[in-house]
Write a structure and sequence with these properties.
CATH architecture: 3-Layer(aba) Sandwich
Strand order of the largest sheet: 3-2-1-4-5
Helix content: 25-40%
CATH class: Alpha Beta
Largest sheet: 5 strands, parallel
Structural class: alpha/beta
Bound molecules: adenosine-5'-diphosphate
Mean pLDDT: 97
Number of strands: 5
CATH topology: Rossmann fold
Number of helices: 5
Oligomer: single chain
Radius of gyration: 15 Å
Length: 154
Amino acid sequence: MSDKKIAVFPGSFDPITKGHESIVHRCLTLFDEIVIGIGYNSNKHYYFSQERREIFIKKTFQGEDKVRVERYSGLTVEFCKQIGAQYILRGLRTSADYEFERAIAQMNRALVPEIDTIFVVADPALSHISSTIVRDILLYQGDMSKFVPSSVTP
Ligand code: ADP
């Protein structure tokens, strides 16, 4: 593994929201590099294509040298190993998030003990934001601009 402290922030980012953006910004001082990993799950139906989700994220973090965007499929821990990342970054909004994330983090640690999951508690002003609700707003042509970075367009 590399000497650099590398964290993977995995997710669907369908689309990236101000909640995701905030987690990355708050963690920039903790790591040498944050790789935003757009995961692919064949059982999931996505609203935005992987290409567009990637473009939205790249534009959001344009000029931020420590942030990289990559797409991956398969297990997150395998992706971490491939790129030499020692940490997985996840945001927690609710206790339901915590229960769900705890099990995944413990499973991941059982699979690859060298990789730890770091949880960051959501900013209370942003904890109501979810990609799911943004997609609902889009479906009914509502205004999503309060919830997503300006790089995200219908
Ligand atoms: P997934 O499909 O893996 O749930 P998401 O794209 O929905 O991926 O979310 C990626 C990560 O961002 C998750 O850890 C999620 O808890 C976190 N997250 C999502 N919305 C927010 C928010 N408003 N504030 C903080 N963290 C968030």
